[in-house]
Design brief:
The chain is mainly alpha-helical. Helices cover 72% and strands 0% of the residues. Helix 2 runs antiparallel to helix 3, helix 3 runs antiparallel to helix 4 and helix 4 runs antiparallel to helix 5. The radius of gyration is 18 Å and the shape is elongated. 14% of the residues are buried.
Length: 140
């Protein structure tokens, strides 16, 4: 008996199968990450203009954040395409985001607020994905 069972055959799933709340939440994730990418570019350009050559050490911080935002965007799109790995991608990026905040030296209150906000957002996404047996319809 194989432990790697194949995914169920892809069937035609519509937006009504996804539900309005999950669709709205995924659209909100996509919009927020689009704004986040723009905001990260704007912040780095401000640092570069303000500090010039001394803005170099913070370059890793902005590159990592842009990659995280793009990856979360990809995870939300994967959830739109009924792929389970999109959820795991979003959770992993949120965990890495907290560690990057700690490494970059942001204030502890920001880290706590970010942790609480991400936990609530991920819990809501988890609940929406598992509501009415939707998780079983997602492909691996």
């Amino acid at each position: 008996m194989s432990t790697n069972a194949p995914s169920p055959p892809e069937q035609h799933l519509t937006a009504t199968d996804r539900g309005g709340c999950l669709t709205s939440w995924l659209v909100l994730i996509i919009i927020a990450n689009g704004i986040g990418i723009f905001s990260t570019f704007a912040n780095y350009s401000h640092f570069f203009v303000t500090y010039g050559i001394y803005a170099g050490p913070v370059l890793w911080y902005f590159i990592v954040y842009i990659l995280l935002e793009i990856t979360i965007l990809g995870g939300a799109i994967a959830l739109f395409l009924w792929r389970r790995w999109g959820f795991y991608l979003i959770v992993g990026c949120s965990i890495v985001d907290i560690f990057v905040d700690i490494l970059s030296g942001v204030p502890n209150t920001y880290i706590i607020l970010s942790l609480v906000g991400k936990s609530i957002g991920l819990a809501l996404l988890f609940w929406l994905l598992h509501e009415d047996g939707r998780w079983a319809r997602f492909f691996r």
